[in-house]
Amino acid sequence: MVLIWSDLAKADNEATALLVAINSLFQIVAYSLLGWFYLNALPDLLGLDSQGFEVGIWEVARTVLIFLGIPLVAGYLTREIGINRRGAHWYQETFLLWIGPIALYGLLFTIVMLFAIQGDAITSQPLDVALIAVPLLIYFLIMFSVSFWLGKAIGLSYPRTASLAFTAASNNFELAIAVAVGVFGASSGQALAGVVGPLIEVPVLVGLVYVALWAGRKWFGTAAVQHHPIEGVRTAESTEG
């Protein structure tokens, strides 16, 4: 979803895509190790009673490889084959416009299904939802603010600063949901925590898009921000029509 926030905020989409790719590679390597550490090693170090609960590294790694590894390889192959056979213009102007919405539809379908499964837990356990939501809200605001300030402080342009801020503030809840469902099941408390993530992230990041546009005009000059994100969507739709 960080690519969507980046586009709406008129950030540097190529820089955002590069950061997302690097982040995906890092997660393929490190996510299973971190999962094992937080679920198994850390409770032992803190002396917490895990009641015999253990999650193997491969259980997490398998879901990560399926959810991140396969799309990453597929994206690389389709780009190489598409550009080599049909050219860069066809790949960017035709193929990407056709395949781009499919990932979003898949994510929305997954979230809707999980909300349907977890709906009763969300409505009947508001305190649990709040305990998940409040730290996430604080995280989004701190990471965005610090990263945006850092980008400006080191002399980055507005598009690069916005890319940095939204990449830092966003979370890969899609992966968290996939791992939670794959390891613990769709009706588990872990899946509930994953579902609450997008519930908080979407409205907060939409709000931060407007904050970024305002800060871009104020601190980088009006030329740094081309136009309002909604106007950009309408312009693109009218052009396609």
SSE inventory with pairings:
Layout: H1 2-8, H2 13-46, H3 57-86, H4 88-124, H5 126-153, H6 158-169, H7 173-184, H8 189-219, H9 229-240
Helix pairs in contact: 1-2, 2-3, 2-6, 3-4, 3-7, 4-8, 5-6, 5-8, 7-8
Tag the structure with descriptive keywords.
single chain; 241 residues; mainly alpha; Na+/H+ antiporter like fold; 9 helices; globular
Report on this model:
This protein has helices spanning 2-8, 13-46, 57-86, 88-124, 126-153, 158-169, 173-184, 189-219, 229-240. The relative contact order is 0.14. The chain is mostly helical. It is 84% helix and 0% strand. The protein is built from nine helices and no strands. Mean pLDDT is 79; it is low at 227-241. The protein has one domain (2-235): Na+/H+ antiporter like fold, CATH 1.20.1530.20. The radius of gyration is 20 Å and the shape is globular.
In quaternary terms, these chains amount to single chain
What is the CATH fold-level name?
Na+/H+ antiporter like fold
Q: How many strands, what sense, and barrel or not for the largest sheet?
A: none
Question: What is the CATH class name?
Answer: Mainly Alpha
Strand residues, percent: under 5%
Q: How many whole angstroms does the radius of gyration measure?
A: 20 Å
Structural class, by secondary structure, is mainly alpha
N-to-C SSE string, H for helix and E for strand: HHHHHHHHH
Average predicted local confidence, pLDDT: 79
Low-confidence stretches: 227-241
Distance between the terminal alpha carbons, to the nearest Å? 25 Å
Number of helices: 9
Work out the number of β strands.
0
Examine the secondary-structure arrangement and name the CATH architecture.
Answer: Up-down Bundle
| Helix amount | over 70%
What overall form do the CA principal axes indicate? globular
